[in-house]
Amino acid sequence: MSNTNTLYQHGTLALLVPGLLDGTITMKDLLSHGDTGIGTGEGLDGELIILDGTPYQVDSHGNVNLVDSNFTLPFANSHFADYAEMLEVEDISRNNLQKQITDAAKSSNTFYSVKITGTFKNIKTRAVQKSSQPYQSLAKTAENQSIFTKDSVEGTLLSYYSPAIFDGVAVGGFHSHLMSDEHDFGGHILSFESVSGVVSFQQFDNLEQHLPTDNKEYMEHDFSNDNILDDVHNAEG
Fold first, then answer.
1. Residue 237 pLDDT exceeds 80
2. Could you state a single Gene Ontology molecular function term (predicted)?
3. d(CA 81, CA 68)
4. pTM for the structure as a whole
5. Which residues contact 29 (CB under 8 A, 6 or more apart)?
6. Which of 27, 94, 140, 205 is the most buried (most CB within 10 A)?
């Protein structure tokens, strides 16, 4: 039986800051740790979302692609889904939604995932254009991002909440990606005006943190001069 109490994380958001963007885990390996997740490809190649064991990539042209088992990622989260319905919402703003979730979850000091299925209005997402070696910093690479908007879209929002004490390992607070029901729109969520739908919740007791120890650049990098928290929040906000 799959362990539904563990959140698996490969890499850290901090390692993206100086441009350590090599793909250091395959999609096949990532899926062995969960049937649900988010991430980005080598060189920040688009935005990934895994739903029901199927990995989708939203690339910088807005295309939704199915990802094969050899696709590599520098950073990703995955887990085995076991969500319970938390609440139903009607035309609720993103800020009010996040407040209702945090109030209901009472889990500010542990990791959890939220899945929202419904209709999102005036939504804005992004995907970054793939870069190649020699990689630039996260801040510089993220400048080459495409912004996508829709007045209304039915889809699934997948979000991971990380406690503030883990800021930098992940992004403190919510990190959210979207996939439309039609599989023709998605990406990293920048904003939305409101959503109507069902909010489901899954809490994790354990974080399994996997680091790319086979990657020479990662093992030899000195992070002490990197502006990790500001750069992570600017890129992921």
1. no
2. acetolactate decarboxylase activity
3. 21
4. 0.96
5. none
6. 27
- Supply 160's token pair: 């991971």
Q: Do the Cβ atoms of 46 and 64 come closer than 8 Å?
A: no
Give the model confidence (pLDDT) of 39-84 as tens digits: 999 999 999 999 999 999 999 999 999 999 999 999 999 999 999 9
Q: Dihedral (C-alpha) 29, 34, 40, 41: value to the nearest 10 degrees?
A: 20
Going from N- to C-terminal start, the domains of the chain cover 6-236
Q: Look up the CATH number of domain 6-236.
A: 3.30.1330.80
CA 176 to chain centre: 5
What are the structure tokens assigned to 74, written together? 């520098």
The token pair that represents 225 in the structure block: 């001069």
**Contact between 38 and 48 (Cβ < 8 Å):** yes
Provide mean pLDDT across the span 2-26. Answer: 95
